[in-house]
Amino acid sequence: MDVNDGVVVTGASGLLGATVTLLARERGMRVTALYGTHPFHAEGVDARRLELADEGAVAGLLDEVRPRWVVHCAAATGVDWCETHPDEALRINADASGALARAAAGAGAQVAYVSTDSVFDGERGGYTEDDAPAPLNAYAHSKLMGEVRVREALPGALLLRTNLYGWNAQPKQSLAEWVLARLEAGAPFPGFTDLVFAPLLTNDLAAIILEMLERGMAGTWHLAAADAYSKYDFARAVAEVFGHDPALVTPTRSDDGGLRARRPRNTSLDAGRAAAALGRPMPSVREGLERFRALREGGYVNLLKACTGQ
After folding, report:
1. What is the pTM of this model?
2. Where are the alpha helices (DSSP H) in 134-201?
């Protein structure tokens, strides 16, 4: 990528945002990293606290830094929290996303909006970009409305539906981290046998997003692993990759998990269109988990945690 290509990353201290920020910096890009509650700092990165709901402030920043791209990772992602705060979820995931897209359009920047596989009802899985969304809960509804708002403001935006895991810069854990922490403590982990997904490692997803922007891609795309796992099988795969006893993962059903919001049963996405456009297959779940382990062994987790003072 051209060193003069500037990118703004929202949610820079979050699970995906921190990885996108560090990868963009590694590629020599001019990076402006925006955060809200949790500060983020990295050498060579212009990190700023900004309230994304303040459309004037967002427009002012984009007019100042004039990025080529905006990668919008910031979101309210707590599914049960969104269920009890639906208006707030819409404000964060839909209204603020629309405001950001309007500001980006005014600054001549392209937007990559990170959506979710949960926009589908999960009745069958293997969803393509041609399938009609049918969200079951407030979180999924708010993210789908975010797609609508972004598309209205910037018809050529890049809308990316996905599911992800990885190493977190903040103290909270992604699913794979949660599974691993339990296993390393010798504690059993309840794996849902009735929830199926096709998650990508954040590092793989970040690289794909930047490549799609560089290629000038637009429209709605599904980004997912090449294969689908139940959350039970995913947790067992984590155990196997990290050398723990898979028997510590106990089969259970989501109805027994005390979840407030309804969960779609099978949100696996068909990423064949993106794989064909990029000219290579999506990584398998197992390949992603092997890299997940290699990242920790290579010191990547410490690098991430240093960005948020952890």
Report:
1. 0.94
2. 138-153, 175-184
